[in-house]
Each structure stands twice: as structure tokens, then as C-alpha cells.
Amino acid sequence: MNVLGIGMDIVETKRIAESIERFGDRFLQRVFLEGEVAYAKSMKFPHLHLAARFAAKEAISKAFGTGIGRELGWRDLEIVRAPGGAPSVRLHGRAEAYAKSRGITQVLVSLSHTSEYGAASAVILG
Fold first, then answer.
1. β-strand pairing of 3-12 with 117-125
2. Does residue 113 have an active-site annotation?
3. What is d(CA 3, CA 117) in angstroms, rounded to the nearest whole number?
4. Which one of 10, 48, 76, 84 is least enclosed by Cβ atoms within 10 Å?
5. Whole-model pTM above 0.90?
């Protein structure tokens, strides 16, 4: 397997909290899938977990070399928990089609957050 791309992103958790406060479900439904929101809401500080997932989607789109836009949308990328608790990526729609067309076989992601920042890195293999 070859590394086809790497990406990273960091976002202020305050920015995500303000977007949730200002736009509510409209923001959540535009960026996240239902499982991502449900997981975050099960935590004491949901905005921290959503910030890390937001950063992960940005990092993955950078690793793909596209950014969020025509080739990849927010909801085409889903951050889920593997059985052991590690984050993993599920591709949907345009992201899944794009990955197949580019020979991408695996997307690895790592998440982190503090009270002030959510961060993620991604590696694309193929």
C-alpha cells in the first residue's frame, strides 16, 4: 500500500459551540451525520467532540486533495468509532465514488481535543 495523501486540521472549539448556538440543528444537519451528533450529545461537552469531527472532515478532504466542495461534501465523510473505541472513517456518496476512482483503499484518522481546540490528522492509502 502507498500513502496517497495526508492532511491535518485544527479548529477552535468555541467556533463550533457558537455555530451550534447560532444555527442549531441547521448547522448540525449540514455538517454531521446522525450518528456523529448522537455520539457527541452523549458526552458531557458535545461541542468538543463535534469540533474534533469537524477537524477530521477537513483533514480528510485535504488528504484527498480536494477540500470540502464539489468532490466531497461534509456528509460524505462520517467519523465513527471502531469496536475498540478508535475513530475510523466511513465514506458515503461522492467520497466513496471519488475514493474508488482514485484507488483509495483505506482512510486513517486520528482525533484530539482540548477545551479550546479540536484537531485531526488523516492518511489516505491505496
1. antiparallel
2. yes
3. 27
4. 84
5. yes
Can you tell me whether residue 11 is helix, strand or coil?
strand
What's the domain range around 116? Answer: 3-125
Helix (H) or strand (E) holding 119: strand 117-125
Q: Comparing C-alpha atoms, which of 59, 78, 75, 76 is closest to residue 67?
A: 59
User: Are 57 and 51 in contact, with CB atoms under 8 Å apart?
Assistant: no
Catalytic residue among 47, 49, 57, 62: 62
Exactly one of 47, 49, 57, 113 is catalytic; name it. Answer: 113
The verdict on whether 57 is a catalytic residue reads: no
Taking each helix axis from N to C terminus, what angle separates 34-41 and 46-64, rounded to the nearest 10 degrees?
A: 140
CATH of the domain at 22: 3.90.470.20
Q: How many domains does the chain have?
A: 1
- Nearest to 66, CA basis, from 28, 107, 13, 35: 107
116 phi/psi in degrees, rounded to 5: -105, -25
For residue range 37-46, list pLDDT tens digits in order.
999 999 999 9
